[in-house]
């Protein structure tokens, strides 16, 4: 903004209420970037073999263990069948899959989602509240948040601060000119996704632990998670799915299958306002590309899986 500091201070002194309404850039939502060239060079995190054998190295390893198998190593804070690494692939290292090395250096940051400047610890708490559907969100100064923060810090070793790195978030995939098609999305899901996530989208378990996460239903991420947005899911799917075959789907196919996935019910948005889906949509989902609060085949979406 081309406004001098003195002018801003004058505005704050004269009209403090209005000053609180000054718009701020949202740095939080794993900002999308144009699809990257195949030969683009991405930031490289240090190797685990480089970790020192001291208290710092031990906490990094513990953070990695929590990140990779959250269900097992932080079960008190997991309310579904998800692990952190389900949305941040290769232990939080993979470019274009919201890698931790791209997120950690961007905090503290203002987030539109809660309209305040967040610390990285608060960002992690949001992941537990929404993506992990936790009823018991770990405290900002808890051991779990500390371990995950230290793991993220280590992965970002050498990364510049407050700079959006290539591959930081999920790619921005253009929407189909004719809009998304749920019927086509179902066909793509059956052909490309059901083998891992199940015909009913409920994932797969080995013993009592999910090895492939549920994509909808009561054990999936809730309606407040970023992945419930069709455009966000399309970017993730385009770059990383099917697992090991990223970029094998077309842009249109990624959108269609993302829409199909997110047209199903899932746990309620924990920010539900006065029990009203309509009010919650107006307050928290008005600018989202999603189905929350919309009617599909005569059914109101957003009632929440029980």
Topology:
Blueprint: H1 5-14, H2 16-19, H3 55-68, H4 70-73, H5 89-92, H6 100-103, E1 109-111, E2 116-118, H7 120-131, H8 143-155, H9 182-192, H10 194-197, E3 204-206, E4 209-212, H11 230-240, H12 251-261, H13 277-285, E5 295-296, E6 299-300
Antiparallel strand pairs: 1-2, 3-4, 5-6
Helix pairs in contact: 3-8, 7-8, 9-12, 11-12
Count of individual helical segments: 13
As a whole number of angstroms, the C-alpha radius of gyration is 20 Å
Give the SSE order as H and E letters. HHHHHHEEHHHHEEHHHEE
Query: What general outline do the C-alpha atoms trace?
Result: globular
Strand order of the largest sheet: 1-2
The first-level CATH class name of the largest domain: Mainly Alpha
pLDDT averaged over residues: 90
Low-confidence regions: 1-28
Protein described:
The protein has 306 residues and is mainly alpha-helical. It folds into 2 domains: 19-155, Cytochrome c-like domain (Cytochrome Bc1 Complex, Chain D, domain 2); 182-300, Cytochrome Bc1 Complex, Chain D, domain 2 (Orthogonal Bundle). Helices cover 36% and strands 6% of the residues. It has 13 helices and 6 strands. The strands form 3 sheets. It has a two-stranded antiparallel sheet with strand order 1-2. β1 and β2 form a beta hairpin. α7 packs across α8 (143-155) and α9 crosses α12. The longest helix has 14 residues, at 55-68. The radius of gyration is 20 Å and the shape is globular.
């Amino acid at each position: 903004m081309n406004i001098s500091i003195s002018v801003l201070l004058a505005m704050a002194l004269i009209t403090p209420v209005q000053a609180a309404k000054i718009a701020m850039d949202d740095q939080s939502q794993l900002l999308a970037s144009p699809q990257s060239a195949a030969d683009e060079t991405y930031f490289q995190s240090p190797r685990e073999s480089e970790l020192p054998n001291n208290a710092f190295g031990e906490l990094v390893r513990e953070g990695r263990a929590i990140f990779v198998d959250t269900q097992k190593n932080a079960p008190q804070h997991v309310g579904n069948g998800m692990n952190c690494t389900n949305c941040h692939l290769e232990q939080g290292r993979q470019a274009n899959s919201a890698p931790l090395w791209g997120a950690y250096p961007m905090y503290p940051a203002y987030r539109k989602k809660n309209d305040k400047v967040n610390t990285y610890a608060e960002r992690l708490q949001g992941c537990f509240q929404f993506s992990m559907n936790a009823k018991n969100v770990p405290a900002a100064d808890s051991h779990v948040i500390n371990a995950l923060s230290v793991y993220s810090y280590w992965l970002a070793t050498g990364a510049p601060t407050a700079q959006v790195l290539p591959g930081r978030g999920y790619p921005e995939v253009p929407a189909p000119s004719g809009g998304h098609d749920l019927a086509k999305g179902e066909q793509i899901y059956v052909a490309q996704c059901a083998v891992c996530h199940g015909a009913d989208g409920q994932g797969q378990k080995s013993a009592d632990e999910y090895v492939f996460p549920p994509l909808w239903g009561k054990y999936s991420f809730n309606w407040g998670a970023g992945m419930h947005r069709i455009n966000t899911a399309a970017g993730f799917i385009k770059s990383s799915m099917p697992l090991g075959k990223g970029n094998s789907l077309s842009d249109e196919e990624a959108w269609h299958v993302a829409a199909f996935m997110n047209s199903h019910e899932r746990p309620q948005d924990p920010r539900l306002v006065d029990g009203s889906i309509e009010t919650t949509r107006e307050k928290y989902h008005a600018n989202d590309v999603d189905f929350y609060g919309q009617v599909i085949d005569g059914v109101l979406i957003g009632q929440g899986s029980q």
